[in-house]
Amino acid sequence: MTKKADYTICSVPDHINVTCPHCDMDDDYNWDKLYARLGNDLYFGNCGTIECSYCEQDIELGDYEYD
Ligand SMILES: [Zn+2]
User: Is 4 helix (H, G, I), strand (E, B) or coil?
Assistant: First the structure.
């Protein structure tokens, strides 16, 4: 006999969006690439630095928020 169950659709982060504190440009950074480098801390903020894709200066990742 088949029984019915409700289910939850779980979303996975795709990218983060950061405004560069040096040049003020904002850009999207691929989640998987960052996650591979920074690990689970990426979910909690203050987890490391990325390089701005415009001015190539380091950006220290601070607090996060969900969109
Ligand atoms: Zn920049």
Answer: coil
